[in-house]
Amino acid sequence: MAFEGLAERLQATFDKMKGRGKVSEADVKEMMREVRLALLEADVNFKVVKKFVNDVKERAVGQEVMKSLTPGQQVIKVVNEELTALMGGEQTKIATAQKSPTVVMMAGLQGAGKTTTVAKIANHLRKHNNRKPLLAAADIYRPAAIDQLETLGKQLNMPVYSLGDQASPVDIAKGAVEQAKEEHCDYVLIDTAGRLHIDENLMGELQEVKQAVQPDEILLVVDAMTGQDAVNVAESFNEQLGITGAVLTKLDGDTRGGAALSVRQVTGVPIKFAGVGEKIDELDEFHPERMASRILGMGDVLSLIEKAQTNVDDERAKELEKKMRSAEMTFDDFLEQLEQVRNMGPLDDLLQMMPGANKKAMKNIQVDESQIGRVEAIVRSMTKHEKDNPSVMNASRKRRIAKGSGTTIQDVNRLLKQFEDMKKMMKQMTSGQKGKKKGKGGFQLPFM
Amino acid sequence: MGFFDKLKKKVTTQTDSVTEKFKEGLTKTRNSFVGQMNELFAQYRNVDEEFFEELEDILISADTGVSTVMELIDELKHEAKLRNIKQSKELAPVISEKLAEKLDKTGEDTSLNIQQNDMTVILFVGVNGVGKTTTIGKMAHSFKQEGKKVVMAAGDTFRAGAIEQLDVWGERVGVDVVKQQAGSDPAAVMYDAIHSARSKKADVLLCDTAGRLQNKVNLMKELEKVKRVISREIPNAPHEVLLVLDATTGQNAMNQAKTFQEATDVSGIALTKLDGTAKGGIVLAVRNELDIPVKLVGLGEGVDDMQPFDAEHFVYGLFKELVEENSENENR
Ligand SMILES: Nc1nc2c(ncn2[C@@H]2O[C@H](COP(=O)(O)OP(=O)(O)OP(=O)(O)O)[C@@H](O)[C@H]2O)c(=O)[nH]1
Ligand SMILES: Nc1nc2c(ncn2[C@@H]2O[C@H](COP(=O)(O)OP(=O)(O)O)[C@@H](O)[C@H]2O)c(=O)[nH]1
Ligand SMILES: [Mg+2]
Ligand SMILES: [Mg+2]
Questions:
Q1: Mean of the pLDDT values across residues A251-279?
Q2: In what residue span(s) does the SRP54-type proteins GTP-binding domain sit (chain A) (predicted)?
Q3: Beta pairing partners, A133
Q4: In chain B, what are the domains?
């Protein structure tokens, strides 16, 4: 029932294919059956899956297997490349109008995350681009929707334009743009009410707002957990509004997020941001290749290898890996590992992609990314002796560390436990690997 | 009497607004699903591999869940062989029979557990934005219409504007809301609410909680604590823990159901947003794999847009045209 990684699914097929020089049609067919299931389980729309599987089949059959790869890896490489291409290769930034203010309008189903995203984007624009945004409260329907945006505005210390819930969204949007001009705000972010794509009245209302303020950007906000219906929603919003981009929210969950692929495929617009938490600063720029590997599942080792190779200094990586495998890892290594890994994608995901990852052991390792800062602080409050010999940790040392890092003893204990779990897991991985030959990247999956 | 006849009879004798509302809300679902089914039977007259592949697609596109679909297809293949069914049309009743079976597995009572002589406490849980607060508002309205005294507890102290949102619902349906300041401990709110509802002699206490993703361990712990506090104050409470699922959600709904069940011992599901085009097939998977009954259905944003879930209605909605066609055949 739970997601099986593609790696696990493909295990048997890989075993059969071992040692062949060419990828045969039968092999590909068998593998693609598993790829299809993996994608469907990830909520990619079935039509999108069908087309994708056919494209890959065509490309993969008869391919010479690259020296460094097994036939299985070769097919996965093609799958990965096609998926990344579909996701849209490059990362795309939010629009900036020639003439200030830039008007951004949100659209989407109920509860998708529009209001939260407005606040997050505003924060992002100010923090990274030095912009001065104005938030516009044009959701006049949902109970306390205006309160919600005003509260967020207060948290951000940013102006919120509102005319209450009796004015029309068109007037609110227009008024907001006017006020932005007067107060020299360079972005207007319009929050709108959630609506069904089949609700003609409310869709008409959005068209009127669009007509009135000519937004430079219309962002469709999509919940990453959306199922097969994502294509209908995206297609319909796009036809009626002409969206210019999408935002995928709630990616901090454990969904595969196949909806991302569906939305891309039917609208062709880039996904510009990813929501990764409920807090205002939990917004990421969208990385298509990370999304591709997330959708594929933890079997996407190739991209992990690639990422590991480009992001981590090779020598250092090997050394680290050796330490991890021998369970000699110290807290300094741990910290470094965290930092390097952080550049690669969601931590939970990465941990899951780790070669030979033992799911049971994984369960105890909860890496909440927003907590990395805290972890860093704790490790930095340790003495060198403590870092190298975690076993010396006692109550008074813990108290000192907690104090020094502005955390609690519980936090320190939790980290120590996680660290031990991680070491244990590394050990298990190593013993599970016995007798298997090592690959060039160092990272190695059981099926390779 | 054939299966379809029974189904039809049951549904058509319930001429109340429930049926109408339900049918209305499901028009979209039904049209597309039955449309596809009819197309399938027209296009694939014979029960063969191609036919099953197409059927698989239809079920997948309804978010039914890969493993449930596979299971169903296997059963159908077996059944077709057993009964020597060659024509796709003959398989139609078998398909809906199987679906109904899966939805109504144990045939157990899916009504809410309402206390006759004591206050009933209902806790609402679920991920962000699925419709917990709205469902509470709708339920408050429906209990009130039954003449019950209702109190709502503003247990979402985290999300901006969440307390105000419940407050608006309280005014809208004329029900008291027990609340504390934003950011306060939700377990403390529940403690307050229970005592306040008791002193007001309430019949029903509806407890809102903040949306949380099931993989956030700390937040799930917080929810466990909320539930613990309720149980400590009133043994046997909460009498219902309703997991709110958004019909638009794909396979992740299964993870949600599983994890929330582990944390709070979910007693039923409220399936929201069925007024959209999402097919809600996830109900099948959840019922089939986790055996949590669906108890309520959300069909819109208004106070009246909620109905009790009825498996037969649901299947009937999906297969209305087929049902009518087939019961005519059965009568011949
Ligand atoms: N975990 C998580 N929660 C999110 C994210 N984005 C939004 N949320 C939550 O999802 C819920 C709905 O978010 P809102 O911003 O109110 O969504 P909306 O689209 O404005 O909703 P309506 O106005 O009701 O249509 C809230 O509980 C948010 O806190 C995210 O990236 N991760
Ligand atoms: N179309 C539709 N929208 C709904 C339904 N139930 C809730 N909503 C909307 O979904 C959004 C999120 O609901 P809310 O109750 O705030 O969700 P919560 O975060 O789980 O409490 C709101 O805009 C609601 O109006 C439903 O059955 N159908
Ligand atoms: Mg909103
Ligand atoms: Mg709520």
A1: 94
A2: 270-283
A3: A187
A4: 3-108+313-331 (1.20.120.140), 120-309 (3.40.50.300)
